[in-house]
Write a structure and sequence with these properties.
Layout: E1 2-7, E2 17-18, E3 25-26, H1 27-44, E4 48-51, H2 61-70, E5 75-82, E6 93-96, H3 101-116, E7 127-128, H4 134-138, E8 142-150, H5 154-161, H6 163-178
């Protein structure tokens, strides 16, 4: 089974910015670290893994989708962090394309596992991502988008910058994929 991991943003596109630390933390940094960790664990579990980026380079969304589609990946996992004006929202969330039943199942299962392991969740379940989300809409495989936390929330940002916390969360995500029905 081939899993394509898409660490969001990169290069000239920093993504959202965590401003409660000095220096500021960019989404692209956390997404790349988390994506590489996830890829390593999944590879260790016997999955074939491809990455849309493995360094701080910008890739157009259409190129990320083409990359995954050309390789005939079975699952596409886009890794992000969230950020908003308010510092109140916090926690992990998973998204899927509204018409993807299998994407919803994978996203829900990850949310359930993280809830069971007492991770802070943003909301009670996975959510459909608006139809304008390019990578979820145009990939031709099961696709999910993970928001690992909010860089606009100081506790989430602190957790995401903690290598042990981040690795532990990623292990739970990888374990979910490892044991997902249909593997």
């Amino acid at each position: 089974m081939l899993i394509c991991i898409d660490p969001g943003h990169g290069g000239k596109d920093p993504g959202t910015i965590g401003r409660s630390m000095t220096p500021e933390i960019y989404e692209k940094q956390i997404a790349l670290s988390a994506g590489l960790i996830l890829g390593g664990f999944l590879n260790h579990y016997g999955f074939d893994v491809c990455m849309t980026r493995s360094e701080d380079k910008y890739r157009w969304l259409v190129n990320r989708v083409r990359f995954a589609n050309k390789r005939h990946a079975d699952i596409f996992i886009s890794v992000h962090v969230d950020g908003v004006e308010s510092s109140l929202p916090h926690g992990f969330c998973s998204y899927y394309y509204p018409e993807s039943t299998h994407g919803k199942m994978v996203a829900d299962t990850i949310m359930e596992r993280l809830r069971d392991q007492r991770y802070d969740l943003h909301g009670e379940g996975s959510k459909p991502k608006h139809e304008r989300n390019f990578v979820l809409k145009y990939t031709r495989m099961t696709a999910i988008l993970l928001e690992l936390g909010f860089v606009s929330n100081s506790q989430d940002l602190k957790n995401l910058m903690d290598p042990i916390f981040l690795s532990d969360m990623i292990i739970e995500i990888a374990e979910t994929i490892k044991h997902f029905p249909g593997r």
